[in-house]
Amino acid sequence: METEERSWGVTPVPERLRTLTGLDVGLLWGSLGISLLVLVAGTFLAALGLRDALFATLVGAVVGCALLGLAGLIGAERRVPGMVLLRDPLGQRGSYLPTGLNVAQNLGWATFELIIIASAANALADRIFGFRQQWVWVLVFAAVTLALALTGPISFVRRYIRRFAVWAVLASTAYLTWWALDGADAGALWSASGEGGLTFWQGVDLTIAMAASWLPLAADYTRFARTGRAAFWGTSVGYFVPLAWLYALGALLFLSRGFDDTTALLTAVAAGGVASALALVALTVDETDEPFANVYSAAVSLQNVFPAAPQRLLILLVAGAATVGALAVDLIAYESFLFLLGSCFVPLFGVLAADFVLGAAQKVPVRWSGLGAWVAGFALYHWIQPTGPGWWTELVAGVPGTGRFTGGASLPAFAVAFTLYAALRYARAPLGRRRARLAGSR
């Protein structure tokens, strides 16, 4: 069974492989949510001031994790990976477009994570041994990532997270929280107003975007869950705790210590004494589960297009590409990257959710109603919150009314995509029945 699980492709998972309990799923998503990259993303909310940053984090985490839990539920009920789920609302060929986007985002995240892990290891090595060679750490942790991705999700949870990662990361994150609060004037920070540059609902969208980046991946893991209920609660609650915790901690670190840069944060923690160094070691080791998830899911997503390709070969290719990227590029600010991910995947999930509620439709190569609803949700998101490359935001800014609505973009984009797809499916249903009756009469 273990060998099957390691390389199970895009066909529905059989009952004998559906072994993950709600606790297993919760531990998996709790571990995936603990990330230094998430911590740094939380610093962007500091512009709201601590009070509004915490409230925006809470609202965004509730909404984002509810959507993520629903994605996990759909994956458990239909027992196939995320990109294969999209064959129903978009058609088999229509699902290739989001597959390409998902592979690209997974490569981007894996690259970001390898840079973060290598930076942390480099800061520790420089502090303890005076050794600074970041490329060495990129190669070391790329090899660890590859080994984890080849084990498969069930073995990853049972052998790695349950036995080690969850305990080490809880202790280290708790210490880091105490370190951030130690000496900080919490009362003054709480009452201080924000500096501007970010609205409350943009802060909510930024929090939702972090959860939304996992929406296309959720089913890759919850297809191995025993029940849909275990998948929903394990995914939503498991990811909610670290998301809310680390976003809040990131805002606090920025306001109390001025850290808005990953390298500065890692260097300061490494210099904080033995306990700080041990906490950073634990977080660095645990961080490998993020590139594991991105490498594994990119490979599984590619199988939606190339189902006959060996999964292990695809894992090797994806891990190699992420390693090259981590060696070749510098870490850049990725706030706009998070918004861009949300604009793509939140409305896409709205289409999938509507399809799940209505029931799977007839198989077609391309379902234009699904693609059209997705594009409409994407367009509305950018009309409310333009994001992406400069040439794109300038183009969108020319549309009348762009940026005037300040109530957040994620929920309206989801609602429009959901409603439009449901309406189009409902409108076409009578036509489909008439065609079926005509075909039967002949």
Characterise the protein shown here:
The protein is mostly helical and 442 residues long. It has 21 helices and no strands. Helix 4 runs antiparallel to helix 13, helix 7 packs across helix 8 and helix 7 packs antiparallel against helix 15. The longest helix has 34 residues. The mean pLDDT is 82.
Percent helix: over 70%
Give the end-to-end Cα distance, rounded to a whole number of Å: 49 Å
Q: Biggest sheet, open or closed, and with what strands and sense?
A: none
- Which value, in Å, is the CA radius of gyration? 22 Å
Oligomer: single chain
Given helix and strand content, the structural type is mainly alpha
Features:
442 residues, mainly alpha, globular
Layout of secondary structure:
Elements: H1 2-7, H2 22-33, H3 36-42, H4 50-78, H5 82-85, H6 87-90, H7 96-129, H8 134-151, H9 153-181, H10 186-191, H11 200-212, H12 218-222, H13 228-257, H14 262-270, H15 274-286, H16 289-305, H17 311-328, H18 335-358, H19 368-384, H20 390-397, H21 410-441
Helix pairs in contact: 2-9, 2-13, 3-13, 4-11, 4-13, 7-8, 7-14, 7-15, 7-16, 7-17, 8-16, 8-17, 9-15, 11-18, 16-17, 18-19, 18-21, 19-21
